[in-house]
């Protein structure tokens, strides 16, 4: 069909197949993410959620199928361009924030800008601003070992968003948190992503975490089973 002029998805996976050794993780998974959309991917343990996120973030190449980001075939990009795109267009947060233990919260958040050549005073100024957006400005001088799980995740989210990515990939960002901390992390993530117009691909087991998304799809044995209206019409 001809292009109708409607903007397409920002990121789309079509018929992804990925096998780890003898274990099939994805068996034809398709999913699309619109600009600024918060999308939750749920499903049982082992259903392929993390593998789908890794393929869509350009961390893992699928065996078959395509990943299109901003009209480019991510699965075909040479490694150098892929890592450049991951650095500039994407932010990533995992279950355990993976902050650098030796650095303060301020330096952890400033790090992507420092690595990109921003001056230290400017990077710190922006890092303070992003910590504040996540209600974590009082953590600036703390090292990860001095923080609670929720504080560490809010710091990790500030670090993921400081470069102004188009997409944040969050793999079980509340998986290690109690329910109050999970609520604070998700409230801050949803509000901040909406303010910044950042799309979020959120992988979670937890229905309360998924409830912060605009839309939810489900994976079953490596296939997206819940409806994804941008891709198909289920009778
Ligand atoms: N690096 C790997 N090596 C071997 N098998 C893997 C690897 N990564 C994932 N798998 C397997 O692929 C399947 C899908 O795993 P994946 O982690 O994507 O699922 P998941 O839905 O995210 O699970 P969980 O919720 O437990 O994290 C599982 O059977 C898993 O054991």
From TrEMBL:
Residues 11-235 form the ABC transporter domain. GO terms for cellular component: plasma membrane. It comes from the Bacteria. One of its GO terms (molecular function) is transmembrane transporter activity. PANTHER family: ABC TRANSPORTER RELATED, IMPORT ATP-BINDING PROTEIN. This is ABC transporter ATP-binding protein. Gene3D superfamilies: P-loop containing nucleotide triphosphate hydrolases (3.40.50.300). Coiled coil: none annotated. The keyword Cytoplasm does not apply. The keyword Cytoplasm does not apply. Keywords: ATP-binding, Nucleotide-binding, Transport.
């Amino acid at each position: 069909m001809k292009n109708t002029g409607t903007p397409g998805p920002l990121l789309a996976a079509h018929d992804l197949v990925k096998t780890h050794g003898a274990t099939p993780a994805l068996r034809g998974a398709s999913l699309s993410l619109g600009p600024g959309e918060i999308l939750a991917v749920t499903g049982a343990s082992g259903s392929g959620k993390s593998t789908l996120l890794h393929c869509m973030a350009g961390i893992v190449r699928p065996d078959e199928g395509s990943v299109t980001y901003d009209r480019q075939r991510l699965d075909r990009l040479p490694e150098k361009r892929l890592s450049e795109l991951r650095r500039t267009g994407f932010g990533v947060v995992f279950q355990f924030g993976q902050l650098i233990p030796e650095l303060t919260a301020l330096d952890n958040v400033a790090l992507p800008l420092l690595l990109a050549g921003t001056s230290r005073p400017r990077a710190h100024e922006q890092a303070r601003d992003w910590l504040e957006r996540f209600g974590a400005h009082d953590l600036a001088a703390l090292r990860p070992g001095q923080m609670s799980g929720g504080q560490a995740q809010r710091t990790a989210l500030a670090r993921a968003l400081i470069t102004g990515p188009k997409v944040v990939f969050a793999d079980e960002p509340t998986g290690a948190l109690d329910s109050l901390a999970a609520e604070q992390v998700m409230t801050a993530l949803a509000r901040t992503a909406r303010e910044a117009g950042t799309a979020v691909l959120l992988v979670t087991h937890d229905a309360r975490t998924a409830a912060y998304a605009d839309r939810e799809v489900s994976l079953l044995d490596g296939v997206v089973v819940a409806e994804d209206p941008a891709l198909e019409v289920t009778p």
